[in-house]
Write a structure and sequence with these properties.
The chain is an alpha+beta fold and 78 residues long. The protein contains two helices and four strands. It is globular, with a radius of gyration of 17 Å. The protein starts with a strand and ends with a helix.
C-alpha cells in the first residue's frame, strides 16, 4: 500500500510544506522512511491509499508517552 505523508522540511514555522508518496506496509514504516530522508521533518498529516487525509498524531504509529513519577526526583535530594 502507499502512503502520502505531508510534512514540514524542518522545525521552523516558515519551512516549506512538502508531500511524499511512500510505498510501505504500515504508517510507522512510512514515517520512518520520511524521517530517514528528512531528519528534521515534522509530519503533519497522512493519507492511506487515496483515502481520507488525517492529521498525524504519535498514537497513530503506536508511540506511547510514559508518566514520570515525581518521587524519583525527590530521591536525589536525600
Amino acid at each position: 500500500m502507499y502512503w502520502k505523508i505531508r510534512f514540514r522540511v524542518n522545525k521552523s514555522a516558515d519551512s516549506p510544506i512538502s508531500t511524499i508518496r511512500i510505498d510501505s506496509d504500515t504508517l510507522r514504516d512510512a514515517c520512518l522512511d520520511v524521517l530517514s530522508i528528512y531528519r528534521n521533518a515534522t509530519i503533519l498529516s497522512y493519507q492511506e491509499d487515496g483515502g481520507e487525509v488525517k492529521a498525524f498524531d504519535l498514537s497513530d504509529i503506536g508511540a506511547k508517552t510514559y508518566p514520570i513519577d515525581p518521587l524519583i526526583f525527590s530521591a536525589a535530594k536525600e
